[in-house]
Design brief:
This protein is α+β, with helices and mostly antiparallel strands. It folds into three domains: 86 residues, Dna Ligase, domain 1; 127 residues, D-amino Acid Aminotransferase, Chain A, domain 1, CATH 3.30.470; 150 residues, Rossmann fold, CATH 3.40.50.261. It is elongated. Bound molecules: guanosine-5'-diphosphate and manganese (II) ion. The site of manganese (II) ion (MN) has 3 residues, from loops. Guanosine-5'-diphosphate binds next to strand 2, strand 4, strand 8 and strand 11. One of its GO terms (biological process) is tricarboxylic acid cycle. It catalyses: succinate + ATP + CoA = succinyl-CoA + ADP + phosphate; GTP + succinate + CoA = succinyl-CoA + GDP + phosphate. One of its GO terms (cellular component) is succinate-CoA ligase complex. This is Succinate--CoA ligase [ADP-forming] subunit beta.
Length: 396
């Protein structure tokens, strides 16, 4: 799960991570009110979307830049009016962009240096790791590619945590000295406390800045939380903004389905994560492209199957469906009943190939046969993949 920058800043405040003062607004009037309350000479207006690269982004109405600095309250109103309700396209949003529903108004920092600081989970060592660089404010992936020597890594002990000597080491690696080392060390320590306490899987601050007065401030923040820990993080769950998420995945999560949207044209509905992965592979092998990963689980109900089928059909890219069920715990007839109910409700207009095997398969096949749906049965997985790819090609 992700959150917005303005929400990240609230977490920073709670955990004593230094950042600039600011507030969020959903209308131009609110933006003006926030600016007046700040009472500063200048303001930075920042579009709030779940994606980075906003500064260099372009709105679909042609307006350039999702991060803007201005020196008057009148211009804050203008900027908020330009950004709110508009779709911002950045190198992280994809060409469809994301709609800006809120803007952050903050006191601008006067930047002397832009640094990069992140805490991530390092899967290789199974522990958190700090990634830092003197090259902040730019695309860190390109720094890693072209000047890997400028990326500094400090592994964190899984039980001892981030040690004071390490925070000073990171600060020095960032070229900080004197009082700045202490300020940075405090910021890193508090950031790590936040990382642990809120079950984060990633906190990325780009840029972390040194101001003209020598303060160290987090100016931007991208958070990622471990979805498996959300049950014990009600405060984080409350920050969820469903309008930022793939609507197919939001619908799937409401029915407890394991669904991940992809960009292919052949949807699949499978029981079991391993079988779902294999099904995606074999679709690809047969010359198609999977539109999703979907594991309905071992004990799916008819309602869940119906919901799954509707989610699949709501994807405009989907040109064919492959249902692959190997019923162990799963009753094949439950799947069949769910498919028939959903297909009748939504009106199935695209080819559907079904491979059913296992528990109660005869009843399942009978339900499908008697439904009147124009579906194609397959004898095994390879046969199913070949058939759906051929059907989709035929229809195109
Ligand atoms: P991103 O483009 O989505 O990563 O958004 P950022 O919050 O990182 O802002 C983009 C860039 O705008 C930063 O790298 C800074 O160069 C600049 N910027 C953001 N906030 C401030 C600020 O408070 N003061 C100044 N001077 N520049 C800022
Ligand atoms: Mn940034």
């Amino acid at each position: 799960m992700n959150i917005h920058e303005y929400q990240a800043r609230e977490l920073f405040e709670k955990f004593g991570v230094a950042t600039t003062k600011g507030g969020v607004a959903a209308t131009p009037d609110e933006a003006v009110a926030v600016a007046e309350k700040l009472g500063t000479k200048e303001f930075v207006v920042k579009a709030q979307i779940h994606a980075g690269g906003r500064g260099k982004g372009t709105f679909k109405n042609g307006f350039k830049g999702g991060v803007q600095i201005t020196d008057s309250i009148g211009k804050v109103r203008e900027l908020a009016t330009q950004m709110l309700g508009q779709v911002l396209v950045t190198h992280q949003t994809g060409p469809e962009g994301k709609q800006v529903n809120k803007v952050l108004i903050a006191e601008p920092a006067t930047i002397a240096r832009e640094l990069y600081f992140a805490i991530l989970l390092d899967r290789a060592s199974g522990a958190p790791v700090v990634i830092a660089s003197t090259e902040g404010g730019v695309d860190i992936e390109s720094v890693a590619e072209h000047t890997p020597e400028k990326i500094f890594r400090e592994p964190i002990h899984p039980t001892l945590g981030l040690q004071p000597f390490q925070t000073r080491k990171i600060a020095r690696a960032l070229g900080l000295s004197g009082a700045q080392i202490n300020a940075a060390a405090k910021l890193f320590t508090n950031m790590f406390k936040l990382f642990l306490a809120r079950d984060c899987s990633q906190i990325e601050v780009n840029p972390l800045v040194v101001t003209d007065k020598g303060e160290i401030l987090a100016l931007d923040a991208k958070f990622n939380f471990d979805d498996n820990a959300l049950y014990r993080q009600p405060e984080i769950v409350a920050l969820r903004d469903k309008s930022e998420e793939d609507p197919r995945e939001v619908a799937a999560s409401e029915y407890n389905l394991n669904y991940i949207g992809l960009d292919g044209n052949i949807a699949c509905l499978v029981n079991g994560a391993g079988l779902a992965m294999a099904t995606m592979d074999i679709i690809q092998y047969a010359g198609g492209k999977p539109a999703n990963f979907l594991d309905v689980g071992g004990g799916a109900s008819k309602d869940q199957v119906t919901a799954a089928f509707k989610i699949i059909l709501s994807d405009p890219n989907v040109e064919g469906i492959l249902v692959n069920i190997f019923g162990g715990i799963m009753d094949c007839n439950v799947i069949a009943t769910g498919i028939v109910a959903a297909a009748k409700e939504v009106g199935l207009k695209i080819p559907l190939v079904v491979r059913l095997e296992g528990n109660n398969v005869e009843a399942g096949k009978k339900t499908l046969a008697e439904s009147g749906l124009a579906l194609i049965s397959a004898s095994d997985l390879a046969d199913a993949a070949k058939k759906i790819v051929a059907e989709v090609k035929k229809a195109a």
